[in-house]
Amino acid sequence: MPELPEVETIARSLRRFLPGKAISTCSICYSKILTNKPDHFKKNVCRNTFRAVERHGKYLFLKLDRGITLAIHLRMTGQLLILPRKQGTDRHTHLELFLNSSPNKLVYRDVRKFGRITLLEQVSIQEFVHKLKLGPDALGVRETSVWPFFRSRDRMLKALLLDQSFIAGLGNIYTDEVLFLARLLPERKSGTVSRSEFRTLLNRMHEVLQKAVANGGTTFSDYREPGGKKGRHQQALLVYKRQSLPCVRCDRPIEKIRVAGRGTYFCSFCQKKPDGQGK
DNA sequence: CTGTTTACCTGGGGGC
DNA sequence: TGCCCCCAGGTAAACA
Q: 0.85 cut: is pTM over it?
């Protein structure tokens, strides 16, 4: 489940490798990952050249010449891999982009097939972000710009942090980590959160995301950076997937419940309700 | 407006 | 060993 830190790790890796490389041919094995018709995709991508790599939230943007941009969302199990061009494909490989005068190819692989690649023609990233109603990127967001949105509704914090139109980039793992670090219960309603608590929430969010990027992201099963390496942040997680293990702060067991339709890990002692009574 | 459920997919794990 | 069933979660869409 690539979230912001995993997508950022991929973006940094591709940024060092792709710019200046031209695509010679393209092989589409499973066309449902493309939101455009395969022929149209090929026509615009083949004999085009990568120029830049950008990211907003969990979206990755590969910019090419002729006003073409590939907007990629990896969803749960999507991978972008740099592989030797002659390496064979397995049943989860859906797209191969062969590069001119390079011993490598760029491959899209996705066990669950939930990921999507969209061809943008003369569409800026800002326009795309606006059309999808994505909020500001979680790494760069400032408290003053999202406080009005936060204040204007009353939803559970877990649901709000997962809502990409509020802030873009958090998924299930980092949402639980952020709420633990900010000592806020996942089920707490946003309307009961003070401005200073909110400021703390965003500060902890920035800290944990930066730390996770420094660790190359979190690998539980499928996530790999383009070179095939796993992330290392799974060993730094404080609550996610730590059900019944001792809380790092109070030693009481981490609990798991269902919030906003997601498995949610938290410490009912360290993460307090607004009245301070605990759970 | 809010929350919940379902669909999209596959592999992994538990139960038997 | 194998089969059945459920679970994992990002997002969109349908629903209460």
A: yes
